[in-house]
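Reminder: ligand-aware prediction takes two inputs, not one.
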Amino acid sequence: MSSDAPRGVFITFEGGEGAGKSTQIARLAEALRLASGREVVATREPGGTKRAEELRAALLRGVAKPYGPFAEALMFAAARIDHIENLISPALARGAIVLCDRFSDSTRAYQGAAGGLEPGLIASLERVTLEGLRPDLTLILDLPPEAGLARAQRRGEGEPADRFEAESMRFHERLRAAFRAIAEAEPDRCRVIDADLGPDSVEARIRETVSAWRPDLLPRTGEGHDHAA
Ligand code: T5A
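Here is what comes back for the chain with T5A:
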């Protein structure tokens, strides 16, 4: 790596719809701030910067859907380029811990495995979009799609499903398989977390995983338990 390589820590969260990523990112961010005293930046994709958030709104409304998965992948890539240039890379250069809700694995899973784009095309797009940036750790929150979609529906009661929530159950099953395959192919970078549990139990598993990976960032503590309802 060159001398101007990022000094921070880049952790991404991936998984299907309603897996609990936002919930767990907020909890891990707080734990890391307290334990490490380092700057922690929590962000999301698509989005994270003003321009990328504008693209997010269009993507989730389904504006790019009629043009097909390649056009959608290009739009996600455009948002990612702005996000990397203006938020992620500067934060890593400052030495921050960056927690990102979805990143390039989502393009592999949604537009690639589930959307039908060829892996070679996705890999080429990744090369030009990421310019060598790779998450240090990826936590894949895994649960049956029915459970995740039910959570997303409960949260957005009364609102119509967004572009991807509205896809078929087969699409969501392919997504789950795709994320598991990514974890299997890159075991050094990825860890699968059972997300079909209460939020406190998922948090405990994430803390344990991060502690085992980098005890300097998050020392080990006792087991977490879900509060009684
Ligand atoms: N996309 C994205 C692509 O197609 N290609 C790409 O390259 C990228 C980057 C983004 C969409 O874009 C697609 C994927 C997505 O479809 P989004 O709205 O950000 O859209 O979608 P999600 O990332 O799926 O976000 P969600 O908010 O739906 O899911 P989260 O963040 O995983 O879940 P969270 O924490 O918001 O929780 C959902 C609900 O469940 C509850 C929460 O309180 C909340 O109400 N909850 C739990 N309930 C029970 N048990 C638990 N353990 C719970 N954890 C949370």
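The mean pLDDT is 93. Residues 9-213 form a domain with the Rossmann fold fold (CATH 3.40.50.300). We will return to this case in the review session.
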